[in-house]
Amino acid sequence: MRTALVIGTGLIGTSAALALAGRGVHVHLADHDPAQARTAAAMGAGSDAEPEGPVDLVIVAVPPAHVADTLADAMRRGLARGYLDVASVKGGPRRELEAKGCDLTHYLGTHPMSGRERSGPLAASADLFEGRPWVLTPSRDTDTEVLNLALELVALCHAVPVVMDADAHDRAVALVSHTPQLVSSMVAARLQNADETAVRLCGQGIRDVTRIAASDPAMWIDILSANPGPVADVLAELADDLAETVRALRSLESGAEDAREDGAAGIADVLRRGNAGRVRVPGKHGAAPAAYDTVTVLIGDQPGELARIFADADRAGVNIEDVRIEHATGQQAGRIQLVVEPNAVQPLTVALRERGWPLRP
């Protein structure tokens, strides 16, 4: 791939353009808002000048509702040898292109499983896709050259290709992406009119659950409008669990021993199933979840503290597998959980104590 045209210079489009431009591909940028394309160009993502002739690959990075029209227009104008989109739904756009009578041999639907709560070109980063799954949904009609271009794109972005059927992809993202967004927003909505004393009690649990509730509503309306059926199916199952959990909690309120035992059993069931599901979430680098332990340290909110504790762990010969920080409300301190291999707990604990770090249970 020597040349590419990215249509849509938001977070995903600009990030892909930055990755390609950084690896020697001559990238052209286009957007319905020319100022946004100019911003992406100023960041080094490419040129906002029109290409002089057909490019190797057109990458359509517009909202799902506009994908088919944008692709159809690009194909009609003969802008490239191959065309793909990066929308978060795949079945609908393909069916729309079929209905428009487009030649789908030169098209491949894709979806990089990466994003942020922020949007727009200024949120973009060349390493946004590093090590993340990038779904490809080829059909029997897909030309081999187009598939190879898509695989080259994924490789240049340092992502991991995953081949799926388009409709299977849409059912999968309904479960692992679209439903979590709605559930996070629903929980966060409970805080809108909550008493201030309750809000001040917010800890890491509520921060974890509501993190993605900060996402752009307009963007998510576009996404959910393109995949409503599969999302509704998952939410219906979730609603059944919610109704059963409410019933179990009401039973725990009851003074009758039998009802309380029944309620406790219902709560235990959903918690156990949650444990079993959580275990299936891939761990570090996408591998099977590993059994890690944590070392918890009280840390001050001053410059250099994180660097110092990481350096001390390095001196002890301990690799930090993951990090979680729980901030203390109204204080310049917090708890940092250093996630490590079980056999690293003892040497890390000894080393940190020797260097004066206050450890916590």
From TrEMBL:
<dbReference type="InterPro" id="IPR003099">
    <property type="entry name" value="Prephen_DH"/>
</dbReference>
<dbReference type="InterPro" id="IPR002912">
    <property type="entry name" value="ACT_dom"/>
</dbReference>
<dbReference type="InterPro" id="IPR045865">
    <property type="entry name" value="ACT-like_dom_sf"/>
</dbReference>
<dbReference type="GO" id="GO:0008977">
    <property type="term" value="F:prephenate dehydrogenase (NAD+) activity"/>
</dbReference>
<dbReference type="InterPro" id="IPR046826">
    <property type="entry name" value="PDH_N"/>
</dbReference>
<dbReference type="GO" id="GO:0006571">
    <property type="term" value="P:tyrosine biosynthetic process"/>
</dbReference>
<dbReference type="GO" id="GO:0070403">
    <property type="term" value="F:NAD+ binding"/>
</dbReference>
<dbReference type="InterPro" id="IPR046825">
    <property type="entry name" value="PDH_C"/>
</dbReference>
<dbReference type="InterPro" id="IPR050812">
    <property type="entry name" value="Preph/Arog_dehydrog"/>
</dbReference>
<protein>
    <recommendedName>
        <fullName>Prephenate dehydrogenase</fullName>
        <ecNumber>1.3.1.12</ecNumber>
    </recommendedName>
</protein>
<comment type="similarity">
    <text>Belongs to the prephenate/arogenate dehydrogenase family.</text>
</comment>
<dbReference type="InterPro" id="IPR036291">
    <property type="entry name" value="NAD(P)-bd_dom_sf"/>
</dbReference>
<comment type="pathway">
    <text>Amino-acid biosynthesis; L-tyrosine biosynthesis; (4-hydroxyphenyl)pyruvate from prephenate (NAD(+) route): step 1/1.</text>
</comment>
<dbReference type="InterPro" id="IPR008927">
    <property type="entry name" value="6-PGluconate_DH-like_C_sf"/>
</dbReference>
<keyword id="KW-0827">Tyrosine biosynthesis</keyword>
<keyword id="KW-0520">NAD</keyword>
<keyword id="KW-0057">Aromatic amino acid biosynthesis</keyword>
<dbReference type="GO" id="GO:0004665">
    <property type="term" value="F:prephenate dehydrogenase (NADP+) activity"/>
</dbReference>
<dbReference type="Pfam" id="PF20463">
    <property type="entry name" value="PDH_C"/>
</dbReference>
<keyword id="KW-0560">Oxidoreductase</keyword>
<dbReference type="Pfam" id="PF02153">
    <property type="entry name" value="PDH_N"/>
</dbReference>
<keyword id="KW-0028">Amino-acid biosynthesis</keyword>
